[in-house]
Amino acid sequence: MPDQPEVLPSQVSYHVGPFDRFASRASSFVSRAWFFVACVLLVVVWAPSILILHDVDVWQLVINTITTIVTFLLVALLQNTQVRTDNATQQKLNAVAIALGELLDEHAAAGSERLREASRELHRSVGLEEHESS
Question: What keywords are annotated for this sequence in UniProt (predicted)?
Fold first, then answer.
């Protein structure tokens, strides 16, 4: 796999597309305590609906369908948000590692083999997430 240059925070585009904005809003929306309360209320409203539906199979199908659809959509949205957060964190770590590597390089020039090896190891680790599978 060819070496890719490290992406620093200053090189990142701050343009966020419509889907990313929507995913961020959805993530913020579902992470609130009142959303959890709304989910609990859904179950509380659903439970006595057996009196209206009279059929246990239909009664279970209703809650299973609702929760499956909501879960499926939320996983996609939250995964988008998580990936963007992970990428931003990695870019920040790369910037810190590169700056530290440059500082080590300056001091390693003075002759310390231990600092030279630390500098080489740090340079090898920057961008490592691009080479490892998760």
Answer: Membrane, Transmembrane, Transmembrane helix
**Of residues 120, 129, 127, the one with CA closest to residue 95:** 127
Contact (Cβ atoms closer than 8 angstroms) between residue 43 and residue 59? no
Verdict on whether the full-model pTM lies above 0.70: no
Considering only CA atoms, which of 70, 26, 28 is closest in space to residue 46? 70
**Is 57 a domain residue?**
yes
**pLDDT over threshold 90, residue 100:** no
Helix (H) or strand (E) holding 124: helix 113-125
Structural domain includes residue 3 = no
Distance CA 17, CA 25 (A): 12
Q: Which long-range contacts (CB under 8 A, 24 or more apart) does 41-50 make?
A: 42/66
* Model confidence pLDDT, tens digit, residues 14-54: 778 899 889 889 988 988 999 999 999 999 999 998 888 88
Q: How many domains does the chain have?
A: 1
